[in-house]
Amino acid sequence: MAVESPKSPEIPESPETPEPPGTSEFPEVRVPDGETPPRCPYCARPFRTERLRALHLGDVHAEESTDDQRVAYDEAREAEREDLFLFHLKVVAALVAIYALLLLAYMAASAMQTPG
Ligand SMILES: [Zn+2]
């Protein structure tokens, strides 16, 4: 239930007001005033993005979810996999760059120590 609260910056938003069954299954989540995040239709848990909700639906509510939700879950998993692949590429690139810099520094230092 939505509580009409005046803007009071000193008081952080209280714990989630809706009390769905199985509230203790996920950690306490605070939703800032005025935001209406996508929520799980089964347990009312709020999510930052639709993709995260789709992943939650597929992982936690696989049996009761609809065909549309399963499709969204598959798409979200695919997008997640691509993001993870990109992240791994960036990590490898960063490691190669660090290795190259260290090698150059080593070569420069050893060149300065042996004149001629
Ligand atoms: Zn849920």
Your description of this structure?
With 116 residues, the protein is mostly helical. The protein is built from two helices and no strands. The protein has one domain (23-113). Helix content is 50%, strand content 0%. Bound molecules: zinc ion (ZN).
Bound small-molecule species:
zinc ion
The averaged pLDDT comes out at: 83
Q: Please, how many domains?
A: 1
Give the class from helix and strand content and strand pairing.
mainly alpha
| Overall number of strands | 0
The helix/strand order is HH
Low-confidence stretches: none
Strand content: under 5%
Shape: elongated
CA-based gyration radius: 24 Å
Write the layout of secondary structure elements.
Blueprint: H1 50-60, H2 67-113
Helix pairs in contact: 1-2
Which features characterize this protein?
50% helix; binds zinc ion; 0% strand; single chain; elongated; mainly alpha
Brief characterization of the structure:
By secondary structure, the protein is an all-alpha fold. The chain has helices spanning 50-60, 67-113. The protein has two helices and no strands.
